[in-house]
Amino acid sequence: MAAAPAAAGSGAGRGRRAAATVAAWGGWGGRPRPVNILLQLRQGQLTGRGLVRAVQFTETFLTERDKQSKWSGIPQLLLKLYATSHLHSDFVECQNILKDISPLLSMEAMAFVTEERKLTQETTYPNTYIFDLFGGVDLLVEILMRPTVSLRGQKLKISDEMSKDCLSILYNTCVCTEGVTKRLAEKNDFVIFLFTLMTSKKTFLQTATLIEDILGVKKEMIRLDEVPNLSSLVSNFDQQQLANFCRILAVTISEMDTGNDDKHTLLAKNAQQKKSLSLGPSAAEINQAALLSIPGFVERLCKLATRKVSESTGTASFLQELEEWYTWLDNALVLDALMRVANEESEHSPASIVLSPPGASEESGLPHSSARTQLPQSMKIMHEIMYKLEVLYVLCVLLMGRQRNQVHRMIAEFKLIPGLNNLFDKLIWRKHSASALVLHGHNQNCDCSPDITLKIQFLRLLQSFSDHHENKYLLLNNQELNELSAISLKANIPEVEAVLNTDRSLVCDGKRGLLTRLLQVMKKEPAESSFRFWQARAVESFLRGTTSYADQMFLLKRGLLEHILYCIVDSECKSRDVLQSYFDLLGELMKFNVDAFKRFNKYINTDAKFQVFLKQINSSLVDSNMLVRCVTLSLDRFENQVDMKVAEVLSECRLLAYISQVPTQMSFLFRLINIIHVQTLTQENVSCLNTSLVILMLARRKERLPLYLRLLQRMEHSKKYPGFLLNNFHNLLRFWQQHYLHKDKDSTCLENSSCISFSYWKETVSILLNPDRQSPSALVSYIEEPYMDIDRDFAEE
C-alpha cells in the first residue's frame, strides 16, 4: 500500500516513514543504495504509489543521506515546508523556507538557460531534479491553491510575495527538469487558477511566464471562457501587462498544429472540417470570441501597436520590468541583447540611467563589467519592439478568424493602419546597426531576432488586412486615392466602388501611404533577403480579388513590374519561396492589362532574357502556374477585343506569342496534371489543378475541348503509360467537386480571379466527368478499357 503523507511529528507518520525508509535501504542492515531511493521516488511520481514526497522520510535519514549525496539540504527543507504550510499555518515560516530554497534553484536555472551549465563533480543530481523528485512541485501547487480552500466559511489567503516565490521556484524547475511542465499542464484546475494570480502586479510577470510555458506543451487548448472574471481581469491590465498577456493569447487563439505534414493535405482538412461541424466551434474560435466580447480590447491593442517609443511607460517602470526579465529566464536572452547594446552605446549616452540587475555578483556568473551598465534609447526601442510583435500577432490571428469583418471594422475605426504608417521609418523599418539585431546564440539574419520578427509580423498583418477586403484602400493616403480616381477617369472606366466608399478620415496621412512605403523598401531589399517573400505576398494581397485596372496602374507607375522582372531574370533568384511569391504577384499585376504586357515586352527585349524567364517558369510549375493562368486568361480576352493597342501587343509580345501556341498549352497542361494527385493536394499546389481547368475551359469556349483531350491521350501513349494521366485527372476532378461545391469562399475566389462564372467551372467539370463513353468531351472516352481506373476511393481513412 502506498505510504500516505503525514505531518512531521505524528506517531503514525513516523511509523510509515520508517517503513518506507527500510524499503528504500533494502532492509535494516542493508547497504545504503541512494540511487534506489531516487529510482523509487521517480517510480512513485509516475504511478502515484510508494515513495512520492520528502515527508515520507525522517529528517535524520535525509540529513545523513545528504552528507553523501550532496542534495543541498533540499529534501529537509521540503520536509519543513510541508510542516509549516498546513491549513492552520500563518505561512510566515513557510515563506522563510521558500526564500532558502529559491536561490538553490535559480542559479542552476540561469546557468541552464545561458548555456553555461557546468555542474561540479560533487553534484550528482541537479537541485531542481531533487526538488521535484521529493515532491516539491506538487507541494507548491497545493500552497498556491490554498486560497481556493474555505476554512470555516472563509477563504485562505497567502501574500503576493509568497506567491511570487512559489512561481519563481516552479518556473526554474520547469526550465531545468524534463516533464515538469507537462505534468503541470495536465492539472487543468491549476492552469485556470494561475490566471487569477495575474490580478496582482507583483505576481503578474511570473504568472504570465509560467502560464505561457505550460500552455505551450498542453495537449488540449485551454478555454478562456472558463477563466473567472476574464473581462474584468483583462480590462484592469495596464498597457505593459496587456502586451505581455498577448504572449499567452498567441497560444490560446491559434489553431493547434498537429506537426504532421500529411495533415496539411486538403483531404485531411476536409475531413477535419466535417468533424468540426459536428463538434461545433474549436477552442481557438471560442477564445477569439471571448476576447472580442471584452469592451475596448481591440482598441487597446491598436493603441499598443501604434504608440511611439516616447509614449511608452516611464523609465522607472521600464527598469523594474527589465529586472523582472533578468530574473525570468524566458526573457533572459532578450535582456542579454539589450545589455550588449547598452555596453556599445553607453559612451554616447552620458545622461542614460545605470541598470544594476538583481543578484549581479561573481556567483551569478555575470562579470562586473556587464552587471552595471547604462540604459540608452536603443533599449527602449527594443523593449517596444518586443511588445509590438506580440500585439501584431494577436491582431493578425483575429483578422483571419470567424469574426474577420468585425475585427476589420474595429481596426479601421481605431486607425491601426495610419498609426503603423507613422511608425514605419522610425521603428518598423528603421535603420539599425547589426549588433542591435542579434540575440544571444543567434546571428543577425536569424528570424528569431526581434527586429526581423517584427518586420515579418507587420508584413503578415498587411497581407491579412488587404486580402479580399475593401478596407485595403486605407493603406493609401488622400493624394494616392485621388490618383486612383484620376487613373479610372483617364481610362474612361468607372471608379472602383470601394474607393468611393473609403472613409477618408481613416486613411494614412503624410506624404506617402503604407503601400507606397512598402514598395520603396521592397525595391531596395538585397537579393538574398528573406523579407522578399513576405513583401511580395503583402503587395499581392492588395491586388487579389476582382481585377482592378486602376490598382494595377498605380503599382506599375511605381516601377513594380520592372523590379519583379529584374529579380526573376537579372538576379536569377534561386529561392523557390521568393520565386513563387514574385510569379504570383506578377500574374496579378499583368492580368488583363495591356499596358503591363507592353512594359513586360520592353524589359524582356532580347531572346536571351526571354529564355532565362522561361527557364524560371519551367523550373517549377507549382511556383509559376498562377502566372501561366493569368497570361492564358489575358490572351483569351485580348484575342476577343478589337483595339489597335491590343493588336499591337498581341503581335509584339513574346510571352503572349509563346502561350498562344497549342503545343505550349498542352505541355503546361500535361505537366500540371502530372505533378499533383488527390492524396498530395495542398492549399499550395491545388492551384495547379485550377490552372489546368482554366486551360480546358477556354478550349471548351472555342469548341476545342475534344482536341485537347485527344492530344493528352497521345502524350500518354508517347510516354508508354496509357491511362495514367487521364485516370489521375478524373480522380482530381472528383475531388474538386467535393472540395469546391461546399466552400463558398473558394468558389468566389475562383470566379473573381478568373472572370469566369463559377457555373461555367462546374459545368466544365461535369462534362469532363460524364460517364458516357460516347461523349467527345468526357475523359472516359479517352481512357481505353484495360487501363480504366476511375472509381478509386480517395477518402481519408
UniProtKB/TrEMBL annotation:
InterPro entries: ARM-type_fold, TRPC4AP. This is Short transient receptor potential channel 4-associated protein. Residues 349-371 are annotated as: Disordered. It comes from Pipistrellus nathusii (Nathusius' pipistrelle). Transmembrane segments: none annotated.
